[in-house]
Amino acid sequence: MTEETIFTKIIKHEIKSDIRYQDEDVIVFADIAPKAKIHLLIVPTKPYPTVNDIPAEEIGIVSKMFLIAQKMAKELNIDESGYRLVINCNEDGGQEVPHLHMHLLGGENLSFNFIT
Fold this sequence. Notes:
Elements: H1 6-11, E1 19-22, E2 26-30, E3 38-44, H2 60-75, E4 83-86, E5 102-106
Antiparallel strand pairs: 1-2, 2-3, 3-5, 4-5
């Protein structure tokens, strides 16, 4: 069984969060330690620990995460000015929570070395 994380608690509404979008497959909420003016986390509701753990038959979740990133960027009026999407994988890749998630960063000029 996959370990319960802060993200699974947010998905189950056991922890209060600034939720910006939710459907049966994906939830989007504000990062509690933002690295940019806009910093949202796009998280599948199914707890894949890392990108490595997505079964081939379920890889469509990544496409859905990208589509929701597009939707959020448009709603936040950063689709034209630009934004960054980041998926970290495992400890050396900078992943802090063992639940697949995508960072959506924007609302300001992001320097080349700006990484989360």
